[in-house]
Design a protein that fits this description.
Length: about 375
């Protein structure tokens, strides 16, 4: 859509250009760094890496994605990953910076806080990072145009496609979400988001305070209130038919498809981009809607209390798997019998290589390997050991 607008060609070219195939490749690659059990597994690996493996940078899915495509995934004997173009490697960098050196102090600037929580490259992959970024004619910490396109597409997918899937599967309690939105309008609309006020139990007021602090350049209190109204209407539209019927499915898909068209049409080009105003951005009203829709998925699906037992079990399993593999890797008498990929990865990269191996397991492979290492003979080793 952007490339179809001839009036944008000159400014896009000045920003480094927009290659549709590069943006598509980045979109296909952007989640390959997710470990078993997704974001839950990512948190476990991050903490385990820092507390038990002497890796101060921990683990981050975005940095792992760059590491995989730029260095780890074998295509030839050379350690250059998939041998992608510099533009494609740069497009994978959703967060084009290394991790901050330590947990930031409360008074530190916003970018330092973000760099501790989210980052796109590990220190040992710096050379590959600098090589990719050397071809991006933009300031430090600013996404390339294709990376910005990938980032927006990811946000729209998370906000709309994921919401659609959870609604269709019955996992989303859209009534509860709408009630929380209504409560926010009745209790918090018009209040200064910088005012901490009393203990806040409403998830959307917590979101508003977070956006006002971390995204001060983009946040607008009036736009947030308008977005609450719009998102409430979206949820009401989703509830207009009973879930599970062909008519309801068609209605939901048609509605979400129209929303996607609207959101894609709201992408704007920034001719003077910064880290918090990347080359491509959603129009302000749509950006606030995306933040609300993502929060709904987080609060009313991912953080549902009835899923906590499953999630805690996944966390315990992954910690146990890491314990068992560390013990095996450090066993001088038996480490020669490690799975081939793990043996090579650990031998070349040490504890970071161990994380490379574990993060590349599927959920089922992680479960099977954990059970096998704990002596459960009912489960085959094949899927784990051939990884």
């Amino acid at each position: 859509m952007l490339l179809a607008r001839s009036d944008l060609h000159e400014v896009l070219e000045s920003l480094g250009g927009l290659d549709a195939e590069v943006a598509e490749a980045a979109g296909l690659a952007h989640d390959v760094g997710h470990p078993p059990f997704g974001h839950i597994g990512e948190a476990v690996l991050d903490r385990y890496a820092r507390e038990h493996l002497s890796l101060p940078e921990g683990y981050e899915g975005n940095a792992q994605t760059f590491r995989i495509v730029a260095r780890v995934e074998p295509r030839s004997r050379k350690p250059n990953g998939l041998d992608l173009t510099a533009a494609t490697r740069a497009a994978v960098l959703k967060y084009p910076w290394l991790r901050a050196g330590s947990v930031p102090a409360a008074e530190a600037d916003v970018l330092t806080h973000l760099r501790w929580k989210k980052f796109g490259v590990y220190e040992e992959d710096r050379e590959a990072y600098e090589s990719a970024r050397s071809w991006v004619p933009l300031p430090e910490n600013v996404q390339s145009v294709e990376a910005a396109a990938m980032d927006i597409a990811d946000d729209i997918t998370y906000a709309l496609h994921d919401l659609e899937d959870f609604h269709e599967s019955g996992l989303l309690d859209s009534t509860a979400a709408r009630e929380a939105l209504t409560t926010w309008k009745q209790s918090f609309a018009g209040r200064d988001p910088q005012d901490p006020g009393p203990l806040v139990e409403n998830p959307f007021e917590r979101l508003r305070a977070k956006l006002a602090k971390e995204y001060a350049v983009r946040f607008d209190a009036e736009a947030f209130e308008d977005a609450v109204t719009s998102v409430g209407a979206h949820l009401l539209q989703l509830q207009s038919e009973s879930v599970g019927t062909r008519r309801a499915t068609a209605n939901t898909r048609r509605f979400v498809s129209q929303l996607i068209t609207d959101f894609v049409g709201a992408v704007q080009v920034q001719d003077q981009p910064t880290w918090d105003q990347p080359p491509l951005m959603l129009e302000n009203q749509h950006w606030h809607q995306v933040q609300l829709l993502k929060e709904i998925t987080q609060q009313f699906v991912i953080q549902r209390p009835d899923l906590a037992v499953i999630q805690r079990g996944q966390q315990a399993l992954l910690r146990g798997l890491l314990d068992d593999l560390v013990t095996w890797c450090e066993d001088a008498k038996d480490k020669r019998r490690l799975p081939g990929v793990l043996r090579e990865s650990y031998g070349e990269y040490g504890n970071r290589g161990l994380l490379d191996y574990v993060s590349g397991l599927s959920d089922l492979q992680a479960v099977a390997l954990h059970r096998a290492l704990r002596g459960d003979g009912r489960h085959t080793l094949a899927t784990s050991f051939t990884h």
